[in-house]
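Quick log. Single chain, no ligands specified.
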Amino acid sequence: MTTTAGPDPERLRSRAVAALTTARERTAALTDCVDERELTSQHSPLMSPLVWDLAHIGNQEELWLLRAVGGRDALRPEIDSVYDAFQHPRAERPALPLLPPAEARTYVADVRGRVLDLLSTAPLHGTPLVTAAFAFGMIAQHEQQHDETMLITHQLRQGPAALAAPEPPPAAPDAGLLPPEVRVEGGPFTMGTSTEPWALDNERPAHIRVVPPFFIDTLPVSNGAYLRFVEDGGYEDRRWWHPEGWEQVRAHRLRAPLFWRREGTGWVRRRFGTVEPVPPDEPVLHVGWYEAAAYAAWAGRRLPTEEEWEKAARHDPASGRSRRYPWGDADPTPEHANLGQRHLRPAPVGAYAAGASPLGVRQLIGDVWEWTASDFLPYPGFRAFPYREYSEVFFGPAYKVLRGGSFAVDPVACRGTFRNWDLPVRRQIFAGFRTARDAEPF
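-> predicted structure:
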């Protein structure tokens, strides 16, 4: 973690204020659209009540910004244990003495007002926690990550739609002209980062990886392609499945992605309270790692490793350097990627030509998280910062890596180096995948 002064302090403050404000506006939109009963209900044992997420966001902001950075006394020390995610599994949180919605809103607003006062005067250099406004960026990312979690809760809740998108995502007029896969040449590339100021500990440090040549899908696997796997009996043929995945299929009678159901001769899905035909041209969504790996095996392919995914997304063969994003170093815009809950759904496969990698791979950022073949492991030289519980306690074979972000991810929490992870059984997350295969050296 660098401790250099970095960019101009006033620009850093402006960036931090903007990131915190954007996150809070989204949090308000996700919690103001439902009544108090919905806020305090547990819509799935996999998720917390929305009101827990709301107060947890404020509590983490207080812990890291007001106390750790500002040296302030605790505002509500009695609630620290209630909102400690490691003390209480999600299924148990409804039984905790949670702040009621009005009190939770008052608390998070009080914390935010004090944080903005602190940010206006806090030094932004000297220690790793404050250099380049890291702690403020970390908290903005934390809130956006919980906003994505709350959006998952909205998808799981029953009843009429509470959210709406102002417009659909853009079309993909040239999707049919694209090659199905691209070749990525073997050799070294720089993986991870040592310079991105708000990168989290598991993205660090930058290091050289050598990857053999491979082919990777130009586009994420679509609903239409995945439906061929379903209709070919993919969920009934154990040949394609990891043994633990096959156990899940049998135990839970899985027959299709989560939220799909057959209706007449076709398939429909439930999306944020609305039932609609499954759109064949969108990336498949709400599949777990076992489903992604089974599809890949059925198709005679495999999931890409995390190294392959990042090389396809960041490596520029012309310059030999790794970019921040597939399209270059500029921050994402609506022309590059589907991010920030803007459309409440993935864009059709082949959209966002401006966001393509140097080799022409599209939608590596946004739309759907992409499962990889890799376990979640530390990079060489990893150091936990600022706390072990963010990444280190999850390292090992139990968790699989996802890359790229989804339509539910805000740009502040999405980079070419950003690493997500989850259990391979998880299907409620906004995850899909693309496939790969080995290539012979020239």
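The first helix runs from residue 9 to 32.
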